[in-house]
Amino acid sequence: MLTVPDALDRLDAALNAARAAGADAADALYVGDGSTSISVRLGKLEDIGRSEGEEVGIRVFVGQQSASVSSSDLSPAALAVAAERVVAMARLAPEDKWAGLAPADRLLTGAIPDLDIDDGSDPEAGSLRDLAMAAEDAARAVAGVTNSEGGGASAGRAVTALATSTGFRGGRRSTSYGASASVLAGEGSDMQRDYAWHSARHFADLEGPAIIGARAGERAVRRLNPIKLETGTLPIVFDPRVGSSLVGHLIGAITGSAITRGTSFLKDALGTVVFDPSITIVDDPLRRRGLRSRGFDGEGLPVAITRIIDHGQLTGWLLDSASARQLGLAPTGHAARGTSGPPGAGATNLHLEGGSVTPAALMADIRRGFYVTELIGMGVNGLTGDYSRGASGFLIENGEITVPVAEVTIAGNLVDMFKALVAADDLSFRHATNVPTLRIDGMTIAGA
Question: Which residues form the Metalloprotease TldD/E C-terminal domain (predicted)?
Answer without folding.
Answer: 231-447
